[in-house]
Amino acid sequence: MHQDEHLQSNTQPSTPVDRRIWENQVRLWPCVSDYGIFDEISYQIMTDDDFRKEQYLRAIHRFVKDKVAVDIGTGPDLVLARMCIEAGAKRVHAIEVGVDAYQKAKNRVDALGLADRIMLHLGDARQIQLPEQVDVSVSEVIGMIGSSEGVVTILNGGRRFLKPDGVVIPYRCVTKVAAAALPAPFADHPHFCAQAQADAADIFRQVGHPVDLRVWIEHFPVSHLLSDAGIFEDLNFQDYLPEEWRQEVVLEVTQSGRMDGLLLWIELNPGKGLVINSLTDVSSWWPLFLPVLDQPTMLNPGDRIAFVNHTHLSEDNFRPEYLIDGKIIKGNGEVIAFAYESTLYKRRFRQNRFYQQLFDAKSWSVPPDQLLP
User: Fold this and answer.
1) In the structure, what pLDDT confidence band is assigned to residue 322 with cuts at 50, 70 and 90?
2) Helices 50-63 and 79-86 meet at what angle, rounded to 10?
3) Fewer Cβ atoms within 10 Å of its own Cβ: the N or the C terminal residue of the chain?
4) Looking at the DSSP assignment, which residues form a beta bridge with residue 184?
5) Is the pLDDT higher at 13 or at 45?
């Protein structure tokens, strides 16, 4: 679909099966979006995500006809704002915090002749003021962990735009979690490709020092899940949400294998009955891997994994960090304790086996600890 065409909906539901292709092309990538780093490639991937657009458009068609909407974080292509116009919205207030993305969005609005129906606003959605209240709020500030890009803080702040009976799209986002074995060759040698190394360098430059950044996995094989799925976090966007919380999780091991860490993935509901699953659907979201163990551990059916996820705001008072305290309870009574903190800015570098191998200087074109002057 050409970017300048109006977005069209697919009237046929997607089949509820694994939609992924190229199953063997597993790659590791740093979560640049958790640091608000979006380049043209990132925006293009989101713009070209047809499955995501299909599910959002169906939700939008339910609520926006003849209504006023706000699109929080519209981006340079105004994807959700344009969906609202296609679905018959009276007008859309489109908010963008990035100056470059805002200017590109303005050019796009002018080129499409929609300046009378899409009102652009430059600024932070937590602080900006709109000239009127709206009927519908649409946004896609969802991370590889649902909350990781700061969606809770953003949408809590954006609720002031809504009329008392206003609707929020997306409806809900649940982040699932299971014990996982890394596929070969990453089990013994986790590594980044050249582009992923460049993305990691961008994060290091923004933070000011190397960090043990979050890693997502492209085309993770579902067969490498070793346990049933638990709920890591559950975000219902129809009301205010706490910005810090505690979630208890118990996982039952279902197959034998070497546990390298935890795999997290989202089940996002743009509307009720509409689901985007980052583990099984082809979309711009992928599962996230957390190397919570200092060393891999062999598991067998009958073993259990119990942990608590403490979610708290990071130093920027906006995006969250995750503190995990847990234990593996073996069927023979042996207990293996573990603790792990997924931070954004703290000086944690090569803190365990996974990160020591990931940042092994021999696999980098420039050693990671020499990327900064």
Assistant:
1) very high
2) 50
3) C
4) none
5) 45
* Amino acid identity, position 163: K
Task: Write the secondary structure of the chain as one string of H (helix), E (strand) and C (coil).
Answer: CCCCCCCCCCCCCCCCCCCCCCCCCCEEEECHHHHCCCCHHHHHHHHCCHHHHHHHHHHHHHHCCCCEEEEECCCCCCHHHHHHHHCCCCEEEEEECCHHHHHHHHHHHHHHCCCCCEEEEECCCCCCCCCCCEEEEEECCCCCCCCCCCHHHHHHHHHHHEEEEEEEECCEEEEEEEEECCCCCCCCCCCCCHHHHHHHHHHHHHHCCCCCCCEEEECCCHHHECECCEEEEEEECCCCCCCCEEEEEEEEECCCEEECEEEEEEEEECCCCCCEECCCCCCCCCCEEECCCCCCEEECECEEEEEEEEEEECCCCCCEEEEEEEEEECCCCCEEEEEEEECCCCCCCCCCHHHHHHCCHHHCCCCHHHCCC
Strands 68-72 and 134-139: parallel
Q: Tokens at residue 166, please?
A: 């206003």
pLDDT mean over 269-277: 97
Q: Give pLDDT, residue 352.
A: 94
pTM for this structure? 0.90
Surface-to-core class of residue 347, CB atoms within 10 Å of its CB (0-12 exposed, 13-18 middle, 19+ buried): exposed
Q: Which residues sit opposite 251 in a β-bridge? A: 305
Cis peptide before 76 (omega within 30 of 0): no
